[in-house]
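input
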Amino acid sequence: MKNIFYPFFLFLFSPAIGLAIGDTTNVPLSRQVFHDKIKAEQKKADKSDGKLDGFIKISPIDDVNLQVTDALIRKVNVMRNDVENNPLLATNNEKIRYLRFIENLVKGFNSNWKSRKLAPTLAPVLVDNFSAIMKANIRGESMLPLIRDVPYEVGMINTAIFYENSGYKESQKLLFPKFCQLHPDKILVNIGPYINEPFADSLVVSAFINSPSQLYSYAQSTGSLQGQLIKRNPDNRIKTVVQLSLLGGKALFYFPFLDDLISGKQTIESISKYLGNDEKKYDSVGYFKLLVKTEIDYYSRLKHGDTPVAMLGVDGLSDMLQRKAIQHFITTINDLHEVNNPAIRFRAIDLLGPQELYFMMVFGESEIFTSSYKNSFDRMLQRMGPNPKGDSLLMSVNFDHFKKFIKMAAAYNKLDTFLKTMKSNSETLMKAFVSRLESSGSLEDAVDVADSYGSIRNPALLKSMLRYVSDNERRCRQSNNLAGRKLYHLLSLIFLSADSSNNIDLSKEIGIPPIYSVNYDYLADDSGRVIQQVFFYGDKDGKESFKDYMSSFPATEWRITKTKEWVEIKSLKGKPIWIYANLPLDNETDQDAEAQKDLIDYLDSTNLMPTIIIHRGHSYHLRYTIEQLPSTAKIIMLGSCGGYKNLKQILDYAPDAHIISTKQIGAKDINKPIIEVLNNILRSGKNIDWRQMWNDLDNQFLKGPRDKKDLFDDYIPPYKNLGALFIKAYTKADGSQ
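output
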């Protein structure tokens, strides 16, 4: 006979002590293997942060970690105990069946957490709901009432486990609208089994509101279940999409103007003249100008509470603006960055006016090179006439994306130039830039303000911004606006900490991990190894980047083992540094993606937890790297992080990560020295001092060509990434209240 062993009073003890105290129940040897399988899944959850210590760390907030640990360790062990002692489970097979259910519960948590389908903070809800369903199932009762009020992710896991329950089918119907709320882009793909349900027609409208273009292919397929559902829908907006679906391959070009088409403000003919036909070439400039004109009009309506159809979302106006800005203009001038003749390099934007250049730059933030931005900015001012007025330009675009515009101008040292075009209104603009950030509905504007402060070099402007932040903190304090007060207080602390003479320790003030250094032991696993994972992509540039990367590892200092999908690089001198990099296999057939997946599975199966992640690829590959980030990542090196959305997602996945990024596209001539210096510090077993490391790199690049020094200056070390620091601080403060 063996024992079940589970802790109680978790919150009264440290994790190590708490897990060593508990009651015991005798378990027959015939069922011990099933208990062991459950414990194996518990260990996987425990070791997800790189340490098997009886404490599941999924958040920087200790209370959250304690609740998750309690759910997956103590409560799961209580359920194992209950299965053994429940008189209603009379036979060996019945007990084994329910032990397997419990194993699937913990396994479902692990797999769905890893695949980002479940927020790990939902563990207590998941386990409590499972426990209630298990008891109902033992009594022969339907689980439907227990599914009604839980989040979709919880219901998805638990209904899959109890698929033989009498309430399974009705529970699936109940969960589908919840799924659609979370994934409106996947409504039509999954709605087939539910087309005769009362909610089906309204879900088609929801799919339309999220992204009208997703109706397009189904509307063409009139014989499919989805096609029939769309065709029968009485909503006039859906009928317009059906009409557009008859236009063939060019239909998506019309979707950004869907609101105007529905209202009659524009017609198919007024748009089609830019799209070309057998007799006329596609007018990329004319189409982009129409997009800009419509954006200005739609944003004016949006400011007054009227949200135009298809302004946002996939294939909507903003999405198409971004794609066309990058496709027709930014990519072209970026690709010609080695051409010294501006007339040739910037010919693609010759016909764009100030408004078009403005939107081209703000929508192309993630792709535009420094030289491309600076020349485009100068051309924008030139085309505003001999006495350009920045305030007139911003008024003409209804101040749409003006905070993003200011952030970029600050990042590329053009803010002073722009403010001088505004004379007396420059102070008003900067006040507006900093003002009422708590009202925007997200942290994006506040992150832009933080990033801008980190880029500005004008002492007077820095002083003014700090004063505006203090004024807003005072406003929020006087009006008892707690959210605003917290936001501006954190901005103030971060701004003050950027000046070393203020001697402010953000770690102490806010409770976030150290920002100026990383201890070796913090990166090492239980065996003292530092594990790195490097993501490569199999396009032409990725293959060249991989070849260049591998030249950093001489055979006298590193042992390289190559498999069919990745390389393993291990240090032969100093501390054990183990690096795993997928091969840049063919990108067209997704062999690189398959190699990344298989490498991650290998690392997971061998309990190798990467604490350093390096992305080596174009910015359009970045989202695939982000989606695969392990929660154990402590240092992440990117090219361009692509703005707030990516930055927040990175910190959602790896909340304590130190992020190295660049204002533009990463360059292998810069990445290589940074990575080599980082690896040398790690092999020596020393702690990483970011300020010292960056100063050494700066001196190194000062001795080389000027263009490489300019590229290095666009790289942002973790301690200067004020936007990332703000997100960390805000998340920590939000959880501690």
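quick obs: Residues 536 and 616 are 5 Å apart (CA to CA).
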